[in-house]
Amino acid sequence: MNDLVAGDLTLAFNAGRADAIELTWLGRSNDRYPDKLLTPYWHTALAAAAERAIPIELHFQKLQHFNSSTITVIIQFIQEARRRGARLVLVYDQALKWQKLSFDAMRVFVKDELFQLRSV
Amino acid sequence: MQPFQFSIDLPVLNHWRNVDLLLTSVQNCFVAVFADVDGCNAIAMVTGELVENAVKYGYWSGDDKHFRLRINGRRGAVTIQVENPVDPRNPQIQTLQAMLSWITEFPSTESAYRAKMLEIASRPGASSGFGLVRCAYEGSAVLRAELVEGNALRVVADMTF
Fold first, then answer.
1. pLDDT by residue (tens digit) across B18-35?
2. N vs C: which end of chain B shows fewer Cβ within 10 Å?
3. Which residues in chain B touch residue A78, judged by CB atoms under 8 angstroms apart?
4. Which domains does chain A have, with CATH numbers?
């Protein structure tokens, strides 16, 4: 896996993690069509996670902003990961009110061990 | 701090890059005035979502390629207005007002937001209106929409913080 750099957004891949595909969101996700940027990258991450039988961790703590179109893409990624039986963890900073509100609401998707939300 | 009022009124070109320029400008302006960073983030987020909608759904086949952003208020209260041209034959006001009514049918904006997320999860094409629901939930914004002179749509978000 490589980093994804698209406009104001970077997804940084942590090559030092052997136990998870760790992707850290940096900057701002403000694209008009974030699905076109992110969906091909998701597929690469899902394939890598399946090959190594490890979960995917998305870290949002350092993200400055995402638009509602990005949230839509994340919801669809949660669904796609579940369809493929991939374990997915979203990590956010509960001290940031906007992150707490956005991610706490995603608890509607927590049904089993395949999808977890973790606040730090 | 003494009581004060503020007002911003800008005609803005309908370029997508202006969405984030406005969002960050509003955020920086308000952080410079208020100590409430969370409140400023919420104002910026609501501004961004309303401006995105104006750029996406405005009627841009005429000569005027501008929408209008107005933000005014006083300490603890702010009103954000975004006005864009619409096709007078199909101004889309009913669609927008139906979405705003849908939000009010729920006991809370949080439950409306969760319902919209579940709808998006089950039908990927169902994301229309999600930005407005986000404004109501995350921004605690009270939203309304009105047609202006038959050819412009104004969306208004009242917020307190």
1. 999 999 999 999 888 887
2. N
3. 121
4. 4-119 (3.30.750.24)
Nearest to A36 by CA among A79, A66, A86, A70: A70
Residue B122: CATH number of its domain: 3.30.565.10
Task: Kindly provide the b/e burial profile for residues A78-94, where b requires at least 16 CB atoms within 10 angstroms of the residue's own CB.
Answer: bbbbbeeebbbbbbbbe
Domain residue limits at B64: 5-160
Is residue A54 packed enough to be buried (19+ CB in 10 Å), middle (13-18) or exposed (0-12)?
Answer: middle
3-state secondary structure of B74: strand
Supply the Cα-derived Rg of chain A in whole angstroms: 13
Query: Which residue reads 């998870």 in tokens?
Result: A20
Q: Please count the other Cβ atoms lying within 10 Å of the Cβ belonging to residue B134.
A: 25
**Cβ within 8 Å of residue A30, ≥6 positions away:** A7, A8, A9, A65, A66, A67, A70, B19, B20, B23, B48
Number of domains within chain B: 1
Which residue of B49, B117, B127 is in closest CB contact with A105? Answer: B117
Could you give the CA distance from residue A45 to residue A110 in angstroms, rounded to a whole number?
A: 20
pLDDT tens for each residue of B41-56: 999 999 999 999 999 9
| Contact yes or no for A75/B121 (Cβ under 8 A) | yes
To the nearest whole angstrom, how far is the Cα of B72 from the nearest Cα of chain A?
Answer: 22
Complex-level ipTM: 0.94
Query: Which pair of tokens denotes residue B124?
Result: 């990927």
Element (H, E) at B47: helix B37-57
**Which chain B residue shows the shortest CA-CA distance from A29?**
B20
Name the pTM for this structure: 0.95
